[in-house]
Amino acid sequence: MTSSPSTSPFSLSSPSSSSSPSSPSSSSSLSRIRIGSAPDSWGVWFPDDPQQVPWQRFLDEVAGSGYEWIELGPYGYLPADPAVLAEETGRRGLKVSAGTVFTGLHHGPAVWDKTWAHVSDIAALTQAMGARHLVVIPSFWRDDKTGKVLEPSGLTPEQWRNLTSLTERLGHEVRERYGLTIVVHPHADTHIDSEENVTRFLDATDSSLVSLCLDTGHYAYCGGDSVKLIETYGERIGYLHLKQVDPEILADVRAKGTPFGPAVAQGVMCEPPAGVPALGPVLEAAQKLDVDLFAIVEQDMYPCEPDAPLPIAERTRAFLRSCGV
User: Fold this and answer.
1) What is the pLDDT of residues 174-228, one digit of tens each?
2) CA-to-CA distance for 173 and 167, rounded, in angstroms?
3) Crossing angle, helix 112-128 and helix 157-178, to 10 degrees?
4) Rg of the Cα atoms in the chain
5) 4: which residues sit within 8 A by CB, 6+ positions away?
6) Which of 230, 260, 253 is nearest to 140 (CA)?
């Protein structure tokens, strides 16, 4: 769940916007939605990779393209020293909305200590940067870079119990020790992906401990309807990632069984508003929840040419302003 207005990390005043007369949201600003972007929109998937732009360039360009909020991205890409990171973000007018962790909790209690060691470092940095959310991405059943199959695509009943119970434990520990809310991110090529698996996961977890990061692109990639999910499980939506898929490329990906990493290289995640789902209705449905929500733009583009992200980010920010945010 998101913070109540009294504890919200951001002001509730309406952001400035230049809504288009044709926009479905032109009559009123989506005042409880806070827009940001992330290293992912600059083609960053790993802490260090020669195909990725330097972190200084990411910070310069994300600020220059009109965003105020960012995520930390893969731990180690941005400076892990909170004093350094606070200086670098502050002088660019940037603030951190969340950190991100990857977990394989379906493997059971044996992985807890290793998982917590990973999570605690990132949670500490996230807390130090004044953020309140930790995005939790389940581990991939096939490698996101090579497409190699790592384990079965489905979970056994015992693995489902491990996944749900340990995610609840993670939510409790992160809240108690760091004051953060976990938001679990359904993701292609993980075990929390389709409508069936997302709703199964939500129905089996405690709403006071586990919220959802709804990624509109990943959910569409896996056949889900984001507006329907918001309308049905609105109290569980704690965070948004804004993303679109190219329906023609997605059809080819599905027909061929292409792994997610190669599908991204093929261009399956596209620049708004060219793909699906339409983001205006998603934002309007989220606004009706009457809670404060971050909506972080993520256009998976690994790998990409270093000069590609900035103009896309500028156009995407302008498009979202036309939607009222």
Assistant:
1) 999 999 999 999 999 999 999 999 999 999 999 999 999 999 999 999 999 999 9
2) 10
3) 40
4) 18
5) none
6) 260
* Contacts with 77 (C-beta within 8 Å, 6 or more apart), sequence order: 39, 44, 46, 47, 48, 52, 55
In degrees, rounded to 5, the angle at the alpha carbon of residue 20 between the alpha carbons of residues 279 and 69 is: 55
* pLDDT tens, residue by residue, 269-319: 999 999 999 999 999 999 999 999 999 999 999 999 999 999 999 999 999
To the nearest 10 degrees (0 to 180), the angle between helices 157-178 and 195-203 is 60
CB-based contacts of 130: which residues, under 8 Å, 6+ apart?
9, 95, 96
Separation of alpha carbons 228 and 230, rounded Å: 5
Give pLDDT tens digits for 217-275.
Answer: 999 999 999 999 999 999 999 999 999 999 999 999 999 999 999 999 999 999 999 99
For residue 157, the tally of other CB atoms under 10 A from its CB is 7
57-86: b or e for each residue (b if 16 or more CB lie within 10 Å)? Answer: ebbebbbebebbbbbbbbbebbbeebeebb
Number of other CB atoms surrounding residue 314 within 10 Å = 15
Spatial CA neighbour of 299 closest among 279, 316, 287: 316
8 Å CB contact between 220 and 187:
no
Angstrom distances, CA of residue 237 to CA of 94, 103, 221: 24, 20, 19
212 beta partners: 184, 237
Q: State the Cα angle at 166 between 132 and 156, rounded to 5°.
A: 135
- Which of these, 55, 27, 33, 31, lies nearest to 43 by C-alpha position? 55
173 φ, ψ (degrees, to nearest 5): -65, -40
Nearest to 201 by CA among 297, 178, 209: 209
Q: How far apart are CA 270 and CA 276, in angstroms?
A: 9
